[in-house]
Write a structure and sequence with these properties.
The protein is built from eleven helices and twelve strands. It is α/β, with parallel strands linked by helices. It has an eight-stranded parallel sheet, covered by helices on one side. The protein has a two-stranded antiparallel ribbon with strand order 1-2. Strands 6-7 form a two-stranded antiparallel sheet. Strand 4, helix 2 and strand 5 form a beta-alpha-beta unit. The longest helix is centred in the last third of the chain and has 17 residues. 51% of the residues are buried.
Length: 314
């Protein structure tokens, strides 16, 4: 188990991504994936109010609704649910009024009294940051949210948020959700990790498997598949990218672990990372994800993978 930042949220160091629920995973599949994740010890679920508004016929909130139905059906204990605000078609931006309305809508869909971890999904430069910080603080004071977090924010804006929160005497964010994986490291490691280290925050990285490329499934730039993300993953199948996959395979074989589990284990073991986010559209994918949470790589193996990833940085 690991703890998210300065919070009291103790979690298995893996977060199940809810972006596929209501998109590439229907209700029955979503329930089966959630069941497998929870029965395997998983207890940290990540979603957003906008998931999955991009799907024809969807309006946003589908993922939260399915997770809420699963929570009501299974009544699992000690499950931590994180969601986000700013991108739902009906609740765009981070004005104080919008944050509260969106949080109330998310609580209804999830069927819970309190959101464990509430992210500002994307920065809203049209709203004064002071208003956003105060809006989140009020949600904590009123019991709608336990802990505040930020996603897709620059290091400078995170520092500004923290300064405003300190000046106001309100809770600081406990987590940062950046795009971070073996083929997308430089900016996060140079800019975001130092902020997290300074303020005792945890990283909860998304795109942890680079849209599936770091599963080893895509070995050609011309690869296609039944996944909507296949094209983006295949673009990473450069000579440098494929050498990285070979290195992951080599390290994984030494542990009897898959390429995906090895890539997630590397990320989990990076400074300030609490739990990589990975999603599963099929129940048989869950075991690999869970295996990453207990896969211990040696310092030499970590260094080998880091070195192999350097030429593959996009």
């Amino acid at each position: 188990m690991t703890r998210i930042g300065r919070s009291d949220l103790d979690i298995l160091p893996l977060s199940l991504g809810g972006n596929v629920f209501g998109w590439t995973a229907d209700r029955d599949t979503s329930f089966a994936v959630l069941d497998a994740f929870h029965s395997g010890g998983g207890d940290f679920i990540d979603t957003a109010d906008a998931y999955s508004a991009w799907v024809p016929g969807n309006s946003g909130g589908e993922s939260e609704t399915l997770i809420g139905e699963w929570l009501a059906s299974r009544k699992p204990e000690n499950v931590v649910v994180a969601t986000k605000v700013s991108q739902h078609p009906q609740f765009r931006g981070l004005s104080a009024k919008n944050i509260r309305a969106a949080a109330e809508a998310s609580l209804t869909r999830l069927g819970v009294d309190t959101i464990d971890l509430y992210y500002a999904h994307f920065d809203d430069t049209d709203t004064p940051l002071e208003e956003t910080v105060a809006g989140f603080a009020d949600l904590v004071t009123d019991g709608l949210v336990r802990y505040v977090a930020v996603s897709n924010y620059t290091a400078a804006r995170i520092r500004e948020w923290i300064s405003l929160a300190e000046a106001a005497g309100v809770d600081l964010p406990v987590a940062i959700q950046p795009h971070y994986n073996l083929v997308h490291r430089t900016e996060v490691e140079n800019d975001i990790v130092p902020v997290a280290e300074q303020y005792g925050m945890s990283l909860v990285p998304y795109y942890a498997l680079a849209s599936g490329f770091l599963t080893g499934k895509y070995r050609s730039a011309d690869a296609t598949g039944d996944s909507p993300r296949a094209e983006g993953a295949a673009k990473l199948a450069t000579p440098a990218g494929l050498k990285l996959i070979d290195a992951l395979e080599e390290v994984g074989d030494a542990h009897g672990a898959s390429v995906a589990a090895t890539a997630l284990a590397w990320l989990r073991l990076q400074p300030t990372v609490a739990a990589p986010i990975a999603s599963a559209s099929k129940v048989e994918q869950v075991a690999d994800l869970l295996a990453s949470a207990s896969l211990e790589l040696t310092s030499d193996e970590l260094a080998h993978l880091s070195a192999a990833s350097e030429p593959a940085q996009g």
